[in-house]
Amino acid sequence: MHLAYPAVLSALLFSTGLYGVLARRNAILVLMSVELMLNAVNLNLVAFDVWLSRTAQDTLHSGQALTLFTIAVAAAEIGIGLAIVLAVHRNRGTADIDKLRDTAESADDDGTDDGTDDDSEAARSEPAEKAEATA
């Protein structure tokens, strides 16, 4: 098989994943698009490894080993990412990225910060009161 076929397929997969990351609003679909991009890179690694092993006498198959490492990292990434998305969905009730960004910005701009530092002063004096009570 010629090298152009997997390279073109990999470019199409990567482009589709990039579009999914940039255009999607749901966090789970964004994670799936990132996985699609990683699989496109894996396809490129294996294709170039096979292509280069034909020319070299000693075949190390380093592209295939790197692909296995990438798959392991991607599995860990998707596990942690899904856990974060589920926790955010339980707390906020949505997995829509734009709505989460809007709620985070509105929490910063709601005017609760009036310039005084009462919370930090109370937090600093609380350990001192506990130390006096135990002494």
Describe this structure in words.
By secondary structure, this protein is mostly helical. 81% of the residues lie in helices and 0% in strands. It has helices at 4-23, 27-55, 62-92, 97-108, 118-134.
User: Oligomerization state of this entry?
Assistant: single chain
Secondary structure: number of strands: 0
Stretches where pLDDT is under 50 for at least 5 consecutive residues are: none
Distance between the termini: 80 Å
Lay out the secondary structure.
Layout: H1 4-23, H2 27-55, H3 62-92, H4 97-108, H5 118-134
Using brief descriptors, characterize the structure shown.
single chain; 135 residues; mainly alpha; 5 helices; 0% strand; elongated
Quick description:
By secondary structure, this protein is mainly alpha-helical. It has helices at 4-23, 27-55, 62-92, 97-108, 118-134.
